[in-house]
Amino acid sequence: MTLAVDIRSVSKSFNGTRAIDGLDLSIPEGATYGLIGPSGAGKTTAIRMIMSILFPDSGTLSVLGQESALAAKDRIGYLPEERGSYRKMRVGEFLTYIGRLKGRTRSQCEARAQRLLRRLGLDDVMQKKCEDLSKGMLQRVQFVAALVNQPDLIILDEPFSGLDPLSVRLMKEVIEDEHGRGATIIFSTHVMAHAEELCQQIVMIDKGRKVLDEATAGLRRQYDPRRILLAPLDPGASLDALKKLPGVQDVTTGPDEALIMLAAGTDPATAIRGIVERVAPARIELARIRLEDIFIRLVSEGVSEESRQQLRTHLQGLST
Ligand code: ADP
């Protein structure tokens, strides 16, 4: 397996504070990886080291087989977290400039820029000055700048932050297409659902440390044995009887379905039998565990290292 990015035991401190602490990360070529974690976890620092904007205090790093991203810059596209440079340039000029810096011809850049802008709902901005665009438009233009050289490795730092849902959707479609043509994609987000939707592999970072590195497919198969979703066959059916069922802790009704919370130690199969005897279901299932829940279980104070390890082993078992 050829690796697009290989990070080994990398640490980085700022003024004595560890932003990244012994990070190991191997990203195969052609994969989509989501780096997730709360604000301040170390995602941007990790990305900046991959991009050779920052350098590790210790450990080693290789990008597309090179010791530095600078040696592979023509094959990399990068959307930084801080946006908004090149404000005086026209959009077309800016995108061509970036593409040409990375070894592409003017006509290649113009054709690809036009096509990508159109896909992102920006049909007629080529002649506009960057400073005349709205924040969301400029963000999409900078996203195009990260793709204009048709890179083999695409690194996006919080690409969706501050965007409206339609722009997010269009950007996700473009990312999926770039992955489809074989590019490796790495992006960071603090919105775990974005990573869950787009990535084959999820890497959770907390306080500079990697707490999870698992295939999304396995995580998706995770069900929470304590939360049951029930859509009644008769939407008007009373659910009062469920509240009295042994093992049921709480019933919350939503517009389409109810969430039934079971007490710790309750057998979900027994509870489901009891529920369907009282309320005929259109659908009844265990709720999926959300990435947020997994994250919280892995990083909460008071959770023993043993139970964290048990959860990791369990998740690994699901992805293999
Ligand atoms: P994230 O991208 O996950 O929000 P960052 O990598 O930006 O996290 O930050 C990780 C930690 O490193 C934070 O505590 C942040 O304050 C600190 N940090 C990041 N960059 C710098 C810097 N240039 N100087 C000092 N501290 C920094």
Largest sheet: 6 strands, mixed
Corresponding CATH architecture of the largest domain: 3-Layer(aba) Sandwich
CATH topology of the largest domain: Rossmann fold
Q: CATH homologous superfamily of the largest domain - what is it? A: P-loop containing nucleotide triphosphate hydrolases
Cofactors and ligands: adenosine-5'-diphosphate
Form type: globular
Order of the strands making up the biggest sheet = 5-6-7-3-8-9
**What number of domains?**
2
Would you report the number of β strands? 13
Low-confidence stretches: none
What does this structure look like?
There is one protein chain. With 320 residues, the protein is an alpha/beta fold. The protein folds into 2 domains: 3-220, Rossmann fold; 225-286, Alpha-Beta Plaits (2-Layer Sandwich). It has helices at 43-50, 91-101, 106-119, 135-147, 165-180, 192-198, 216-220, 240-243, 268-278, 291-299, 305-319, and strands at 3-14, 17-28, 32-36, 58-63, 76-79, 153-157, 184-189, 201-206, 209-215, 223-232, 248-253, 258-262, 281-288. The strands form 3 sheets. It has a 6-stranded mixed β-sheet, with helices on both faces. Strand 11 (248-253) and strand 12 form a beta hairpin. Helix 2 packs across helix 3 (106-119). The longest helix has 16 residues, at 165-180. The radius of gyration is 23 Å and the shape is globular. The two termini are 17 Å apart. The model has no long low-confidence stretch (mean pLDDT 91).
